[in-house]
Known about the structure:
The structure holds 2 protein chains of 2 kinds.
Chain A lengths: L14 E5 L9 H5 L5 E4 L4 E4 L9 H5 L5 E5 L11 H14 L2 E4 L14 E3 L20 E3 L8 E2 L2 E2 L7 E3 L3 E3 L9 H14 L3 E2 L16 E5 L8 H6 L2 E5 L10 E3 L6 H7 L7 E3 L9 H14 L6 E6 L4 H10 L4 E5 L8 E2 H6 L4 H14 L7 E5 L5 H10 L3 E4 L1 H6 L22 H4 L4 H26 L14 E3 L4 H7 L2 E2 L3
Chain B lengths: L1 E4 L5 H13 L4 E8 L13 E7 L9 E7 L13 E6 L15 E4 L21 E4 L12 E7 L20 E7 L11 E4 L3 H18 L3 H5 L3 E6 L9 E3 L2
Parallel strand pairs in B: 1-2, 2-3, 3-4, 4-5, 5-6, 6-7, 7-8, 8-9
Antiparallel strand pairs in B: 9-11, 10-11
The structure holds iron/sulfur cluster (2 copies).
InterPro entries (chain A): 4Fe4S_Fe-S-bd, 4Fe4S_Fe_S_CS, Aldolase_TIM, GltB, GltB_archl_type, Glu_synthdom
EC number (chain A): 1.4.1.13
GO molecular function (chain A): 4 iron, 4 sulfur cluster binding; glutamate synthase (NADPH) activity; metal ion binding
Amino acid sequence: MKWMKDVKTYTPPDFHVIRDPDRCIKCKACVEQCSFDATFYDEEEDKIWNWDAKCVGCNRCAAFCPTEAITIENRENPYRINESWGKWNVVGVKKRAAFGGAPVVSMGSDKPYIVYWDHMLINASQVTNPSIDPLREPMELKTFLGKKVDYLEIEDGKLKTVLYPQLELEIPIMFAAMSYGALNYNVIEAIGRAAVELGTYFNSGEGGLHKDHYKFEGNIIVQVASGRFGVYKEYLDVASAIEIKIGQGAKPGIGGHLPGEKVTASIAQTRMIPKGTDALSPAPHHDIYSIEDLRQLIYALKEATEYKKPIFVKIACVHNIAAIASGVAQAGADVIVLDGFKGGTGASPQVIRDNVGLPIELALASVDDRLRQEGLRGKISLVASGGIRNSMDVIKAIALGADAVYIGTATLIAIGCTMCQQCHTGKCAWGIATQDPFLSKRQNPNIATQRLVNLVNVWALEIKETLGAMGINSIESLKGNRLALRGFDLSEKEMEILGILHAGE
Amino acid sequence: MKRIDASNLKYNVLNDIIRRVIEEGENKIIIDGVCGQYYIGCGIAKPVEIVINGVPGNDLGAFMEGPTIIVNEDAQDGIGNTMSSGEIIIHGNAGDVLGYSMRGGSIFVKGNVGYRACIHMKAYKEDVSPTVVIGGCAGAFMGEYMAGGTLILLGLNRDKKRLTGNYLGTGMHGGAIFVRHGVDESLCSSEVLISKPDDKDMQKILTNVKKFCDLFGFDCDKIIKDEFVKITPKSKRPYGNLYIPGP
Ligand code: SF4
Ligand code: SF4
């Protein structure tokens, strides 16, 4: 039989694909949609079978079944319940033992760590400080990112002070770094178009920028990572800002690794590497071993672009993040991007993703505090990233001290992603994290653009309504305003770090 | 031709002058009195010639596309960082991370270089490939993560000094390193193969060594008759089988 198992490596399937025989019309749509070989048609028996062990729970088949015959169920842990081991630890040992390799996973950690956003409530106005109706009154979400001056000098009625370059965002939400390679052409096309339409920016990620996407000039942030993929003069010139990637929240201290099979001719061209080779970006930039070295790269990029563009530095949230961020600010970064523990990834060793780092909420609060204490906060901008799931997370992030946020996972969910965590396999059935032309066609840039525009516009509306309820008419007034937040179900220490009071206080 | 006196100029002022002079259409610049100024030639995308008298600072020629930079003395770290095309000629020694991630053009160094030379150097087209020729010896981690291009190490005037440091070619997954007089295998990473250069390789070595000798006044015939070894990666995917798909 096709699904004969090797008993020695047996691990129980995660999902159960249930097909209702009364509903199934054997149209085979599910067979066509499943890119993980979990669904197949047996001609001899005229039957559609499922190989549960291969199912990743992406729900593509269920979504495309015209008669709603398919249900994907999470399988219960078949082993004797053992609270201290759980299924994951048992399976984890078995897989490593059987295959001799470390499991690579994608998306953000799925382990049950506390999500601080869900332990904070937002304030609203009553009586003394009336709320504002955003549908009838102007509400300002415009945000500027970049280094700020301490004071302005005016001479003869004209501004004498030379201002630093700024990015102007209509909404404080940007599309996070996701590379061409991790995502395919169609998806980047849609993200780029959405950024233009929304008046915000998208980040190229570290894989370079396809020539066709240069048309988004004015809405592009390009990334420079340790592998320096696709970094050349034109790439720097087309960008509105340049982001130095030091770390990523999902894998702090770990470099990037685009497996050779994803390096197609077009990706090779864009990354400037040979086709089919592994695209390795090591954990460190090999010219950065200190804050002074970071300063050197920041200023190399400023020199190369004649000081016309803000330089972002993206760091993963780790234990001493406040001190690191302070160093980054002093190294000359215009914008610091904090990428939290729950941030997504196209591929990361599982143990790193699930165990290393710091949640964005705590990191953001402590960095904001530290920069304020050192008189640096007003000079630079802070972007929060890694684990922003909805418009209220955005509000809370800004109240904790962020100027703007990056969204990555939410971007992908908006266009179909079901968080099946298979991005690293390159087989994404939703046509997102794949270079397979057959699968990539599943993303229609027109439709995807519309969905992204819808999502961000709705978030903007929700943010405006919430600001209105708080009696604030500008997002600027919310920045770092932690009195707008109250915590619950948190320890005193947690609230101290978050810098918020307990609900009821 | 334009002469610039760099003495007592801060790097940003000096580089601004260089950019302006190039914008005005100058195609040859001589800079005197250089003393550690960073980023000279950084991001310049015109085929100009820049001659440097003195010791330039880090990131000389970073991100550049097209210029020829001639340094008449030693140079510091990060020379040719992420450069795309052009040429850098150094009539002395160079510091660490020479040619980091360069993907085109060439660098010739008369003397020794520091750690991590040609790390991440890459090539992605048949006709665009970076070349680096080092006259002296190199530090550890030479050719680390190298993904393409040609690196030639000549080991001239090596005295008792080790020709290369440890960990040669760690993570290398493309390109080729040629070393005159052979290498100590115990210094090489386990990811590389050592072989004898074939005729095509020898031709490539000859062309570049000839250019090196013309630039720095060495006897090409003498150098080229010595034995060379070729170091290439065992795999285009050095870490391919350390991982399995999860979760
Ligand atoms: S399409 Fe997705 S959910 Fe359906 S069987 Fe295949 S892997 Fe499972
Ligand atoms: S992008 Fe595709 S492969 Fe990745 S989690 Fe989403 S649906 Fe799965």
